Amino acid sequence: MDPEKVEERTTVITVEDTKVIDETKIKFAKVYRPERTKTIQTIDTTGSRRPSISAPKRPEKKRKADKKNVDITEHLLSAEECAAKYNTHINTKKASESKGLTTQQAANVLAETGLNQLSPPKKRHPILKYIDCVLKLFNLLLILAGILDYILLAINFQENFANTYLGAILIGVALLNAFIEFYQEQKSQALLDSFLNMVPAKCMVIRDGKVQQIDAVNLVIGDVVMVRMGDKVPADLFLYQASDLKVDNSPLTGESDPQERGPNNTQKNVFEAENIIFNGTLAVSGEGYGIVVRTGDNTVLGQIAGLTAGETKEDSPLSKEIATFVKIIASIALITAAIFFGIGFPVNNNNVSLTLNFAISVFVAWVPEGLPATVTILLTISAKRMAARNVLVKDLQGVETLGAITLLATDKTGTLTRNQMTVTYIWSCLNLRNVMDKQTMSEKAIQIPGVREILNISTLNSRAKFDRVDVPVSQRQILGDATETGLVRFAGEQFGDLFDTLPDQYPKVFEIPFNSDNKWAMTIHRMKHDNGDLTLYVKGAPERVLKLCDSILTESGSIPLTQEHHNAFQETYSYMAGQGHRVLAFAQVLLDGQEYPADYVFDKNQKNYPMSGMTFVGLASLEDPPKHGVREAIGKCRAAGIRVMMVTGDHPLTAEAIGRKINLMVGETKEMVAKRTGRSVEEVSEDEYNSIVIHGDMIDGLTDDDWDNIFSKDEVIFARTSPKHKLEIVKHAQALRHIVGVTGDGVNDAPALKKADLGIAMNISGSDVSKDAAAMILLDDNFASIIHGIEEGRLIFTNLKKSIMYTITHSMPEVIPNLLYIIVPLPLPLSAILILVIDLGFELFAALTFAWDVPETKEGLMKLPPRKPVTPDSIDRYRRYLHRRERYVQYDESGEEVRPNVFRRMYNKLHELTTTAYWKEKFEKTDDEVLVDLPLLSWAYLEIGIIEAIGCLTAYFVVLWYNGITPYDAVIMQRGASSPTNYFANGPIYARDYLTATGKLLNAEAQHRALGQAQSITYWSVMVMQMFNMFACKTRFSMPIGRYMFSNKWTFAGILGGASLATLIVYCPPFNIPFGTEYHLLPLWWLIPVGFGFIIIAYACLRMKVRQRLNPINFNPEIHGLRMHPTIFTVATTESGHRMA
C-alpha cells in the first residue's frame, strides 16, 4: 500500500497493541510510521564504513594562560559578602530601599574599568582592504606586464610609444579588477552594519538611593540594577532579591527552557548557579535586584565573543581553486615568455625592444585579463539573486561555498524551530486531540468538551503581558514565560475579541505565582456559578496538580477520580512527554458560596484557600514546533548528498523528537535496535545502526577513533552542547575534509560560525556577535532559504566553470599566432592591443551572460553529490597526504605548528617533487570536481583552442593571399620588417615596395592594408568562433543543441554587444588607427570562422556522446523514509475522540 495514502487517511500516532484493548483505557488511532530497520538506504551506502587510516598523531597543545577564563566566584558568596566586596549598599529585606553606589563611586569605577560594552572586532582600514585586492596574483601579473611596457618605452621611446597606452590599460585593468572586488565587499559590509542593533540599551539602576534610568554602557561593577519582565540583562548580576524571576538563556546556551533565578544558590558551577544572571539574556517573567559583578568583555558574553575573535577562517574552496589556476597560468605565461624571449632575441637580430615586445605579447595572450572581473561580477550577480531570496552574502566567495558544503551543522532553537511554544495536544473529558492541525478538525477547539475550561485557566491564570492590545493576539509581542506565552496565544486565537474582556469580566481576587516548591500557580476570580461567586484555577506540573484533585471533568460533569483515570492520565502524560513536549495540567474548584462568600479575604500566610478536593480539567502539551518548510529543506539537503547535523543545547530527547519530525533522523539508534531485537545495548554492533545522539558531556572525552565512528554515521544529533563543543565539532568535521556550514542565531554559536567554512546567521533573531562572525545571513530567519542558497551556489559553480572554459579557450588562437610570429617568422596576426580588446571586449560581454544560465534540468543540480564528497576513501587519501607532509612540519614547545623560513619552504617543496608518493597522489583518481580540471584545460588548450587557432590562421592566410601575399611572401617580408626595408610600415617610416612570388608589386600602403585586413580577420575569427564555443560550453550532461540553447536570453544580448564592439573596432575608420585594423575587410571572409564554428559544435556533440558512454552521470540514490510533504502537516491528528466508559 502507498505509505502516503495511508498517512493521509490516518490521523493520530498509535500506542495501540495488537491485543484486545480494555475499553476503559485511552485509545489512539493508528498512523503509518516509516519502518526503521537496517534496510533504510542513506546517501552514502558505504557511510557506515570507517576510514582505514588513522589521523597522524600530533604533539598535544599546551594550554596557554587565557585571560578570558570564566572567573566568576561571587555565586558562592552571601549577598552581604558580595556587597562588601564591591563597596555597595543593599537592603536584602526591602530591595527597593537599597542605596547602591554613589555617583562619585560609579564615576571612579567607570574611569578605571571602562564602558560596559564588548570591544568591537578589529576592522581593517578600507585602503588596506583595497591594497589586499590589488595584491592578488592575477592583478600582480597584469601590473608586471604594464611595468614591462614602460621599460620598453624607456629603451626605445619612438618605436614603442603605443606601449604608453598598453601599459596604462594593463595596470588600469588590474586596479579596476581590485576595485570591483573591494566595492562588493564594502557594500556587503555596509548592509550588514545596517542590521546590527545601534540603539543604546537602557537599564534601571539604584544610585545615591534613587532609582534612575541610564544607558547600559555606563554601568559599573558594584551598581545595583533592577531587572523586570521583558528587560535584557545589561551585565552579569548577582541576585540578592527576586520574585518569580525567570530568564531565557538561549542566546548563551541554546536552551529554550526559561531558567528560574533567585537569591538562594545550591550550585557550584557558575553556569548553573541560581543567583547569577548573565549579560545578554532576557527576563521573561518576574523581577529581581542584583549587583553588577562583571561588565563588558569580562562578562560571560564577552568571553564567548573572545572565543570568536581567536578563531581563524580558512580560504573558501573557490578562492583556493582560483589561486591554483592563477598559479598554473602565471607559470605557463612566465616560462613561455622567457623561453621565446631567448629564442626570439637572435632571430630578431638581437633587437631587445622587438623581442621584449613579443615576450610581453605572449605573456598577455596567456593571461585572461578579464577573468578576475568576470568571476567577481558573476558572483555579484549571483549574490544579488540570493539577496532577493533573503540570503545576504558578506563574502562573495561564500556564494559558491554554500553550494559546495558537504556537512551542515545547525542549531535547533530559533533555526529549525520557531522558538515559540505552541499548544499541540489537549486531553480533556478523557479525549486526546491534536489542536495544532486544523485541517482535519471537524469543529473549533473551543467547542470540544472541556477545552473552554482550559482556555479560561490559560487566560485568567497568567502573568503574561502584551506590548499593545489594539491588534489581534497573534500579532502582539508577549512578554512572559515561553509556556505561558504559548497558552495565551492559543487562548487568544480561540476566544478572538472576547479574549481581552475576560480579565475585566472575571477580576482576579487572589493569586499565588508559580514557584519551584509548589510547581503550580493558583488564581481565584470573581466568576459566578450555581453554588457561589468565586472560582479557583490551578495550572502547573501534571503530577503535582493531580495530587490536589479528587475528581475529574467529563462530558457529563465532574466524577470521582478512579485508578482507571490515574492510568489513563499516566498513559497520556507519558505519550505527550515522549514526543519531547512540555506538559501542563489544569484544575479548578467552583468555591462554595457559603464557605467562601464574594467578599471573602484570602491570605497566603494563613493559607485559607483550598489545597485539595479540586477537579482535574485536563492536560495540554506544548512544543517548539519546526518552522514551516524546514522538513522539506532538510530532506532536499540530504537528497543533495549533504549531511545535516543538529547541534543544540537542548535535552537529547527533545532534540531527537524534533529531528525525527524534520527528516534529520529517520533511521534507528543503537538503543532502538537493542529494543527491537530484545538485546542489551552493549550487544548491538556498530554496523547495525546508522543514527546516533551524542550528549555534550561525552564530547570532551572522545578520542579520534570515537570521532571517526560518529562521523561515519549518516544521522547525528549533538545535544547539551556548549560553545566550545560546537567549535570542536566543526574542527573535527573539517579534519575529515568536510566543507562545513554552520547555522545559528545565539552568541553561543558565534565561535563555530566563524570557524566554519560558511557561517550562516539569523537576521531577525540573531545576536550582533553571531551576525558579525558569520559569512552569510538569512534575512527572514527561514532555514528553508538555505536550500535556495545551495541551489544558487551549485548553479554559480557550474556557470563559473562554463564561463572559464569559454574564456580561456581563446588563449590558443592568441598564443599560437604569436609564437609563429617569432619562430617562422610571420607578420604579427594579433597585436597586444587587439588581444586586450578580445579579453576585455566581447569576451567580457559574453562571459558575463553565463551568470543567467539556468540548470539543464529542473532538479538535476540538487540530485548530484557535492562536488567534493567525503567518503571513507577520500578521508584515507587526505590522511595519506597528512602522513606524507608530517616530515616537513615542525612544532614549537607549546605544540603549535611553526611556519618555516622561505628557503626551508622552497627546499621542502623541491624535495616533495622528487618523491613517488607525491606524484602518485597527484594522479590518483578522486570523486572531487574542481573549478579548473584536466577536461576543462584539455577542452580549452588541446581541443577547441587548437580548432580555433587553425581557423584563425586559415582566415589570416586567405586574406593575405587575397591581397597578393602568399605564405612564402609573408615569411620573407616579416624577416625584412625592420630597417632598412621596413615592410608593412606606412608612416612615419615607409616600407620599400615588395614584389611578391606571383609578380605583384606592393607599395607601403598596400602592405599596410594587407596586414591590417589579416589582423582584422584574425580578431573577427576569434569572436565568431567563440560565439559558437559559447553554445558548445553551455551543457554538461546533454547535447549542445536544442531548446536549452535558447533558455538564456542574455546570451544573445552578449553576442550582440560583443559583435557591436568588434564591428566598431574593425569597420569604423577612426578606430583602425589605434587598433591597427582595416575597414575594407570583406564580409565574405566571415564564412571561414562560421564554418569552423559549425565544426566546433559537431565536435562538442561527438565529445558529449563519448563522455556519456564512458562516464555516465551518477545521481544520488533515493533515501527511504524521508517525508517531503509540507511541515504544517507533520503532526498526526485525530478524526474523533474516544471516550472512556
From TrEMBL:
Membrane topology: Multi-pass membrane protein
PROSITE patterns in alphabetical order: ATPASE_E1_E2 (PS00154)
Subcellular location: Cell membrane
Cellular component, GO annotation: plasma membrane
A UniProt-annotated Pfam family: Cation_ATPase
Family matches, as Gene3D superfamilies: Calcium-transporting ATPase, cytoplasmic domain N, Calcium-transporting ATPase, cytoplasmic transduction domain A, Calcium-transporting ATPase, transmembrane domain, HAD superfamily/HAD-like
Chain residue ranges for the region called Disordered: 37-67
UniProt KW keywords: ATP-binding, Cell membrane, Membrane, Nucleotide-binding, Translocase, Transmembrane, Transmembrane helix
Name assigned to this protein: Cation-transporting P-type ATPase N-terminal domain-containing protein
Compositional bias ranges of the Polar residues kind: 39-51
Superkingdom of the source species: Eukaryota
